[in-house]
Amino acid sequence: MLKEKFLKALVAEDLGRGDLFSRISTSKPIRAYIIAKSDGVLAGQEYIDAFAKMYDLTLEWKKNDGSRFSKGEKLLFISGDSKTILSLERSILDMVIHASSIATLTASYVDAIKDTGVKLLDTRKTRPLLREFEKYAVRCGGGINHRMGLDDCLMLKDTHLQTIEDLDAFMKEVRQKIPFTSKVEIECESLEMAKKAMQAGADIVMCDNMSTEETVKVVAYRNEHYPHILLEASGNVTLDTIKKIADTGVDAISSGAIIHQANWIDLSMKVE
Length: 272
Known about the structure:
Layout: H1 2-15, H2 20-24, E1 29-36, E2 40-41, H3 45-55, E3 58-61, E4 68-69, E5 74-81, H4 82-112, E6 119-121, H5 131-140, E7 154-156, H6 158-161, H7 167-177, E8 184-188, H8 191-200, E9 204-208, H9 212-225, E10 230-234, H10 242-246, E11 252-254, H11 257-260, E12 267-271
Parallel strand pairs: 6-11, 7-8, 8-9, 9-10, 10-11
Antiparallel strand pairs: 1-5, 1-12, 2-4, 3-5
């Protein structure tokens, strides 16, 4: 239902009071296709499938979500009423391009650490009202979603910690008031803070903007004293640094860049 509401709003933004071309054109059955004008990883199939049900379109996918494609490949054939397809052309392309661009960059980060066993996570640095869509694109690229919002994991960031006088006492209260299944993650900028977070009962400790040398020390302390605690590294994660970070022994690396630094790939729609 949320997906349908999103799609209707997307079309309404572009359609306005009605496609002017539809006023003077005659309906006819046509077949269009999306062609890649650059290499990439596909995302958007799940949303375009929903579009097809809403607007009576017939789809023939040549690639699926998560599939890699090359410049010149035809990714999707769309059959239906000409007025419908031409009115939806930009909406369809914008969704596939936006999602596939995120999936493509995500896949490059995943490839860089594929032999380490470390997971790549996204963040909440998403465009307003596009979080579900953009995090879906991350999954298509092989990444794993971090929390979707403030309600599914309690993360204590540096700003939160500034308001907490006694972390141990606070954590005892937390365990009485948040759901039993919810995890607690604590952001730490030093080895000493990481030790305090583990001793206080964190489920996940984030090594935030730590040097790789200090992260290695956090991993060693965790392995010796609290092997059940998960470690996440974050901050200054790029394609050049991610492998070095993964080699420290953390369980996961989070990056907002895989969403907000994704450059749009080039796709186009043509009518046969």
